[in-house]
């Protein structure tokens, strides 16, 4: 029984390290897309490891299925939300680039 508790504790601790790494990525990276990448990857994996550790501790099929259903829903929603945020950040970045380019005057031959 102590082996299961040890593996569960290790899984939860590694999951928490992924959460911390994602948070550091959010604070360290300069642009929106890099921050988004760090958060979505680290948080999804961190949550999976934490829920895996919890499933090992509970040893109930009903609770385990609920935990993995939660993880699946979080992954699906995180993918959809990160796509929308990334698309919006790209559009804003593209708009800034277009605004920096000088407008050609009518009749200008260059």
UniProtKB/TrEMBL annotation:
Taxonomic classification: Bacteria, Pseudomonadati, Pseudomonadota, Gammaproteobacteria, Thiotrichales
Pfam families: PhaG_MnhG_YufB
Presence of keyword Chaperone: no
NCBIfam families in the cross-refs: CPA3_mnhG_phaG (TIGR01300)
UniProt cross-references to InterPro entries, sorted A to Z: PhaG_MnhG_YufB (IPR005133)
Residue ranges crossing the lipid bilayer per the database entry: 6-30, 42-61, 67-86
Keyword entries, A-Z: Membrane, Transmembrane, Transmembrane helix
Record carries keyword Nucleotide-binding: no
Tree of life domain: Bacteria
One term of GO molecular function: sodium:proton antiporter activity
Protein name, per record: Cation:proton antiporter
